[in-house]
Write a structure and sequence with these properties.
mainly alpha, two-stranded parallel ribbon, elongated, Double Clp-N motif, 12 helices, 2 domains, 5 strands
Length: 238
């Protein structure tokens, strides 16, 4: 039973209220005696890619189903189902942070998107580990999701090549961000270097390499490289 966090029924959408109940079910099903932020994340993600929050997460390139699997893998199973899990302070703080997220966006309601944004502020634990396993920078995802919720979609065209900074790698990354933020997030987990007119991308793992070779991501990388008059080479992961 929740003790500290305040779910104000007049402001919280029915879906958001349901997520708090579903989080308790997630805890019960995993044999946890307490509800933690990761249970709230699972309950939010299971609302589907059409729900506010998960929808924006998918729009910036995060694979919802893979994220669910990675979160579940990192939850410690404590034993048999418990009748009524308590709310851990960390989960109650997410509820309070959801209220603050709504206020900061000047929204008069609290929805699943605000719960997700609150969860994306997590700096450690299973949530951070799950995003890291997907090669996704949690801070950058939060920024991108916030922009989508606000309606500030990143322009896909025309191609923008900024005059600054002078560092060609940074120019390349900023240009990729302006076209496809999800590709940028993958690149931030890779090694990049420029030698003359050749830009070399060194994926840190075979997973990152596979992501970069997907049709959409591969096309953006080479389109930006061509616009900057760079020959882009993706080397095989070691």
């Amino acid at each position: 039973m929740m003790q500290g966090g305040q779910v104000m029924r007049g402001r919280w959408t029915e879906r958001a209220q349901f997520v708090t109940v579903a989080a308790e079910d997630e805890a019960k099903n995993l044999g946890s005696s307490s509800v933690y932020p990761e249970h709230l994340l699972l309950a939010t993600l299971r609302q589907g890619a059409e729900a506010p929050g998960p929808r924006e997460l998918a729009q910036v390139g995060v694979d919802i189903q893979r994220l669910i699997v990675e979160v579940e893998r990192r939850i410690t199973v404590e034993g048999a189902r418990t009748a009524e899990p308590n709310w851990d302070l960390s989960a109650e703080e997410i509820i309070d942070a959801s209220n603050e997220m709504a206020r900061s966006l000047s929204h008069k309601y609290v929805g699943t998107e605000h719960i997700l944004l609150a969860l994306l502020t997590t700096d450690e634990g299973p949530i951070r580990q799950a995003f890291d396993s997907l090669g996704v920078d949690l801070h950058l995802v939060r920024t991108a999701v916030t922009d989508h919720i606000r309606g500030n979609r990143v322009s896909r065209s025309p191609m923008w090549i900024p005059p600054l900074p002078a560092d060609r790698v940074q120019q390349f990354l900023i240009a990729v961000w302006s076209v496809r933020p999800s590709t940028y997030l993958i690149l931030t987990r890779c090694g990049l270097s420029v030698d003359g007119r050749t830009l070399t991308i060194r994926p840190v793992s075979s997973t990152h390499e596979a992501l970069l070779r997907r049709r959409a991501d591969h096309a953006v990388i080479h389109d930006v490289g061509e616009a900057m008059k760079l020959h882009v080479v993706i080397v095989a992961a070691q």
